[in-house]
Amino acid sequence: MMEILITGIVLGGTYALIAVGLTLQYGVARIMNLANGENLVFACFGAFWLWSTLAINPVLGVIFIAPVAFVLNWLIYVYALRPLVNRARNRGQLEVDSILATFGLMFIAQGVMLLGFGGGYYNYNFLSEPITILGANYGLNRIVALGAAAFIAAALYLFLNHTRYGTAIRAVAVDPTAAGLVAIDVPRASAFAFALGGALTAASGALLSTFYTFNASMGTLFTMKALIIVIMGGVGDVRGAVIAALLLGITETAVASLIDPGLTLAATYALFILVLLFRPQGIFGRHPA
Amino acid sequence: MTPLLATVTRKEARIALFGAAALAVAATLPLFDTGFYLSLALNVAMYVVLCTAWTLFSGPTHYISLASAAFFGIGTYSVALGIDTLPFPLLVAVGFVASAALAGLVGIATLRLSGVYFVIFTLGLAELVRQVVTWAQTNFTHGVGLYVFTDFTETHIYWMLLALAAIVYVTGWLVNRSRLGFALRIIGNDETVARHVGIDTARAKVLLFMISGGFIGIVGACLAPRFAYVEPPSAFNPMISFQVVIMALLGGTGRLWAPLLGVIPFTILFDQVSAYFPNHTSLVIGIAFMAVVYLLPRGVIGFVDDMRRLKKRFRIVLVEDEGALGKERAS
Amino acid sequence: MKRRTLLKTAAGTMLAAGMATGLMAGSAFAQDTIKIGASAPKTGPLAGGAAVTYWPAVQLWVHDVNERGGIDVGGKKMKVELIEYDDKTSNEEAIKNYQRLATVDKVDFVIPPYGTGINLAVAPIIAKNGYPHIAVTAVADGLEEFVKRWPNTFWTLGTSQGMAQGIVDLLKKMKDDGTINNKLALVSVADAFGIEMSKTAKPAFEAAGFDIVYETSYPLTQQDFAPIISAAKNAGPDSFVAFSYPPDTFGLTQQATIADLPIKAYYTGVATAFPAFAQANGAAAEGVLGIGGVNADDPKIQDFIKRQKEVTGVEPDYWASPVQYASLQVLEQAITAAGSLDKQAVIKAIGDSTFDTIMGEWKFENNIITKFWTAGQWQGGHFKGVASTGLPGEVPIILKKGWK
After folding, report:
1. What's the CATH class of domain A2-278?
2. Whole-prediction pTM
């Protein structure tokens, strides 16, 4: 029983990593980024490349990968997405446009990765040694990822709730128009949130690459997971996303151990649907004003 | 029937005649080519029906559904499971009823959701159905794949889809002029207003979602014989849901025939890309996609409207120009 | 005026283009190349497998044939021109691609796609256009039925029946020798491949006296296997058999390494024979059993591996890659045997002749190759065939001793 719980939490940590970047991108910048998974896989390839050519280990690699992703995502937001934000007359319009645009972006990212790395599977060995907790073995790389997830979530939470700029970002998440009225530079805050979200996703990708097998076409899988977690947690709420991710990890592990591993994905979606039925705005979501 | 026909305006009659003629022309295609162009036309016809059926619901309500793959797969499976025991038309009917029933359930469950929640919910639903079907097949039947052996050729399937397209258009027209259609347009504009004027918004949305889902199920049923071998990854392929949304949105959802403007050019464009850039399909399609989003902000229909307006203006400019030219010559 | 010149130029260009097409069509009568079309995933879920097994083998073959001066057709050497399409792992796309190859590109022959489902789905279209369909990466049962309906189809990689029986017999022998006990864990991916294999293997294991202490399936695209491995570990079997697919084969093995699964025979499915498997698992790969295998000591196979790496830069897998190449050798030799590009004659030649391939001598029995590798094992950095349905070169099996 304890083993199920720990395995579930470790898995939940992985999921939290996948989703936390999208929470910012969707919650604050209002971009439903369908290319989120590609961003993550890009970072997997980046970490792999650093490791295999320069022997830089993936945990250190984050120091290189995250800033690069930050800049790239900033540029993407400013040049590709801001025109959409400016021309959208309402939230619905922006949602439709951002789905279409990031869908295109997803294809472009896949195309670039296919050109660079081909379609084959990649994985490598890093910290895949066992570590014993309460009599059961866990992969060290996954525990590292769990620790990183906890760190990232806590840092983000502190940043959003206890700094001036963080508060500004939360204000934009709640109501961009009102935020603009109180002298917050909304376009800049949005771009920053989008770029930060992208950097977090990339950092997660680098960590996940130590234990996931990946290829150029695999991004969609991560996007789907992230979307589910973000929606389940309540849009733009870091706590909600983390709790949703843990809930998902534990549910999947429990279903796999106690019922049937064939039903794990079905359980994911069933849980998601149940949450939405009883809390249509997500676990921590507020009803829109 | 007479009262209905009597209310048809001259413009509507003209559109109907034009539509019927276009369908008739399209139906002669297999007489000229039963090879690649038929295959391509079949894909076009398939997406025309899918996108139009999708627009039936999503056009007026602005709800973006990603559940098309679920309805499509259920239709396919209705045929695949029963092909050895029941006649094909009956199975198509089963596909319709089963998909519509699922749509009804989803509709009842998700009415409270709006915007992106509904989008992701329907995506999750499609995946859930696929996982459950896979699991059920794994545990209760032999193998995951089902053979569908029939004597239908692509020509037959193509004709079936064209007929279905006609039915969907007529249904859409009937819905539009009915109380239901009127109610939906009000919902689409402002749901609160709709509720205040005494429209049962829930009932209206569920009904329309069922009609839309049912038609998508029929498309799946009609296509089952094309594949000979049916398995969950192909029947419930999530790309179907995405492509339907994207082509419909690119065409525009304001009018019933607008998705046509998305489907035809984009099926052909995608096809050309895969023919000429087999190693870079993703990249080229992605770039084409972004270009369309930026250059045609209101879908192809928006572009068409703009062109019409431009043409009008152009005519005026032309007349003025000629006047100017005349002056020049005179001097 | 300017506009008119532009129009003229455009018209001229079009005319020239038209003439060029006309010329090309004209040259088709005095054909001196053979057009061969291929469609398989370059994107989508199956692209990863196709990038290892399908495309490089096809490219190497085209390269080899053209380097030799072409295929001998009735005494005349004809070079091969390859036309490739991406089916995006979608049945509709694949059907359309073969239609295009047949009726627009008018290719002389086609190379069937990658993956069981897509192979079965395009069979009617390939048959309708009269091409021989030499399927490789398709493992299914009920092939006899299929062949009756489409006699132009040929199946080279084996049947799921045979593959499953291969591992059952192997483990039974070890059990009878007393090297492993009768407890077994059986895991499969919930996809056509995994299910067909486990449906066949389960009764066979039971008949062989095995006690299946843990049995389960998991969904396609799963990446986390801690619950499965720990449940299997708790059940305490000596043998672990997983009919798995590419990403999961890696995931299962990594988890087994981490959990230090105490096992004497460990078997995984597709991708165990990929070179990436050894790279990813290092020393832990030693002693891992997997589906497929090659005669690792055969100089022809060694030559194939070496040259594919040189020519395409991609290392082949130790199972289906050489079979993919061999299937193309069959096509080549059948064209030569038929002495023409007549599809019907070539189909007949494929069914009747004996072929000299890198996989050894091949002869189709009722359109199916009945001698194939069923299981291999990583031994000293090479994946060597340990069980087959009557092929030479099987090496003795070793016990799995730990994961370090």
Report:
1. mainly alpha
2. 0.83
